[in-house]
Design goal:
Elements (H helix, E strand, L loop, with lengths): L1 H4 L2 H10 L11 H24 L7 H17 L7 H22 L4 H21 L1 H4 L12 E2 L2 E2 L3 H24 L1 H11 L1 H6 L4 H27 L9 H14 L7 H19 L3 H15 L3 H8 L1
Antiparallel strand pairs: 1-2
Length: 309
């Protein structure tokens, strides 16, 4: 019992279970839903950066592909009467593309790996921006409707919030199980010293490919949920800036030193973004400065500081 009470997940789950009931905060149910989606996104990304040391600076591609895959599946295969299956297919599309890219660049290292992921993201971004017949081009895809699921009306914002909450709980538990498994320990060994890991018999290329595919699946799932949150899909979710957002949120919280760092970073990043954009038109200036400060002053993030204390 004491072990359960000390589990950070228990308190995180309880806090967000009651989110709609909080005074003032409960009125911003869309913000709470977006936070839960970001939790899934950053936790999945941290499997690459924090656990394997892969500088995947184009991870927004899988998030965007999940959103587009969900939107296109919903509109063209389910005749506006689907909900759960389009999200799953969006996640599978994210994982499929991540697996393809991961296989091609599995043996690349450092800046070469990072630049290839960014290039891949920008290629997809311009395809979605220009392919009017399929993606809607600059206008994007609209007309997504949250229908019922298991008899529950997902058009209701509170019902959809709890659907996303359940998805977050399941994803968080699975991702932590992966991180704590022997597979996760192998990823950490590769991050610490890939040459020594290879000498010990680890197929580092396969492990990188596998974790990239898994991470892409969960990122695609987050993108699919975001598609139904906004009831649309636009090319902006594929832009390099979306990848930069997830990197900043993960580093800010201390994902490189703590499993729970991405959750802390996402909470601060999303809330700060909402507040700054409401009060200052040029809030992106602070966004860029924050990234520089984090890299120079807080390389281990907030959780790193707490651990040292």
């Amino acid at each position: 019992m004491k072990k359960i009470l000390k589990d950070p997940y228990l308190w995180i789950f309880l806090i967000f279970l009651c989110y709609p009931l909080y005074p003032y905060l409960g009125d911003y149910i869309s913000l709470g839903t977006e936070l839960l989606i970001w939790f899934i996104f950053t936790l999945s990304f941290n499997l690459c950066l924090g656990y394997t040391g892969l500088p995947s600076f184009g991870h927004g591609a899988f998030y965007g592909l999940g959103a587009y895959g969900t939107a296109l599946t919903f509109l063209h295969l389910y005749n506006k009467d689907g909900f759960f299956v389009p999200i799953i297919l969006g996640a599978l599309i994210g994982g499929l593309f991540a697996g393809g890219l991961g296989y091609l660049i599995r043996n690349k290292k450092g800046v070469y790996f990072a630049m290839l992921t960014v290039a891949f993201t920008q290629v997809l971004y311009f395809i979605c921006w220009r392919w009017d017949e399929v993606t809607g081009g600059e206008a994007g895809i609209k007309g997504i409707v949250r229908s019922s699921f298991l008899g529950i009306d997902m058009g209701n914002s509170y019902n959809f919030y709890y659907f996303v909450f359940i998805a977050f709980v399941l994803c968080a538990l699975v991702i932590r199980r992966i991180a704590e498994s022997s597979f996760g320990k192998s990823l950490q060994a590769i991050k610490q010293n890939p040459i020594r890991a290879e000498a010990l018999g680890y197929n580092t290329g396969f492990y990188k490919f596998a974790v990239y595919t898994i991470s892409g699946f969960f990122a695609g799932l987050a993108g699919g949920l975001y598609c139904f949150l906004t009831q649309s899909a636009f090319a902006s979710v594929l832009d390099w800036s979306k990848s930069g957002d997830v990197v900043i949120a993960t580093l800010l919280g201390g994902g490189t030193v703590s499993f729970y760092g991405p959750l802390v970073g996402s909470l601060i990043f999303v809330v700060a973004q909402e507040l700054l954009s409401a009060f200052w038109e040029h809030w992106m200036l602070l966004y860029g400065l924050s990234f520089v400060i984090i890299i120079l002053v807080l390389p281990t993030g907030l959780m790193g500081i707490l651990k040292r204390k």
